[in-house]
Design goal:
alpha/beta; D-Maltodextrin-Binding Protein, domain 2; seven-stranded mixed sheet; five-stranded mixed sheet; 14 strands
């Protein structure tokens, strides 16, 4: 479970799943938006079409969406000036902000949550009577991904702050790669407990992947700021103002796995200091993770 530079390294040769970048497109003619990677890049672009067209209409400029091969590919695209705007997870944003000259300016408020924050949880089956972190000593456990905010960073810090050493006190630890996989791993008794974002747990219940009444929440984090929409700091100030106005003007649309969005809310870099503080609790040097 050691966090290494390689784990978080920026993929210098990363390419976007939709093909090549529009290297010669003028930022004054086309705004390129990089999206968080998914298993199916075409499906992600299709699911984001309503958002992209709404921003395009508000901006009065052509907007094109891209899906990178991974989180690091999105950061590298920003750093290399291949895209102007991107959607990142909270931790991947903090990593990117330390190396790529980017800044958060908006975050989405979903209709279901009605808020711009969420929580990390550790879940277990009720039938096993795991009701506290102490009950999990010697048990099998699943995180999501080393660069996941609610699937690794926050729960690991929470465990350590509670005096629980995840490197020593669990019997076995694995990374499944997704929140849904963690929920299913617990439901199918592949592991005794696992991490998951509360909103993703709720979605898994709504999709009938799992049954809510079969689970205990053994631990829950404090509020985590929702994933930010970011821009390159080196964009002209007048263009940034137009982009912000365009996103803040988007209301009542459906966007990928976020579901219905009420609106975008203005945010800033300081809103993600809680992520930095959590990284410090784990002795992570963000500037060296490249």
């Amino acid at each position: 479970m050691t966090l290494t530079r390689r784990t978080f390294g920026l993929a210098a040769g990363a390419t976007l799943a939709s093909g090549t970048f529009l290297r010669h497109a003028s930022a004054q003619q086309v705004i390129r938006v990089a999206l968080i990677p998914s298993e199916d890049s075409r499906a992600m672009l299709t699911a984001s079409e309503e958002l992209l067209r709404a921003v395009e209409k508000n901006l009065g400029m052509k907007v094109q969406g891209f899906v990178a091969s991974d989180y690091n590919g999105v950061i590298e695209a920003l750093r290399a000036n291949h895209v102007e705007v991107a959607y990142l997870g909270p931790f991947s944003y903090v990593l990117g902000a330390s190396v790529a000259g980017i800044e958060a300016f908006a975050t989405a408020e979903t209709a279901k949550a009605g808020r711009t924050f969420y929580h990390s949880q550790i879940i277990a089956l009720k039938e096993n009577n795991y009701n506290s972190l102490e009950d999990l000593k010697g048990k099998t456990f699943a995180f999501v991904d080393p660069s996941s905010t609610s699937g690794h960073l926050f729960p690991k810090a929470g465990l350590i702050q509670a005096g629980f050493n995840p490197d020593k006190h669990f019997g076995r630890v694995l990374f499944t790669g997704s929140h849904d996989s963690n929920a299913l791993a617990v439901a199918n008794k592949r592991v005794d407990a696992a991490t998951i974002a509360d909103r993703i747990f709720d979605t898994a219940v709504a999709r009938k992947l799992i049954e809510a009444d079969k689970f205990n929440v053994v631990w829950r984090s404090g509020p985590i700021p929702e994933s930010p929409t970011v821009w390159r700091k080196n964009l002209p100030e007048d263009l940034k103002a137009k982009i912000k106005t365009a996103f803040l003007g988007v209301k009542d649309i459906v966007w990928a796995d976020q579901g219905k969005l009420n609106r975008f809310v203005e945010t800033n870099d300081a809103a993600y200091d809680v992520i930095r503080d959590t990284a410090k609790a784990l002795n992570l040097d963000l500037k060296k993770m490249k």
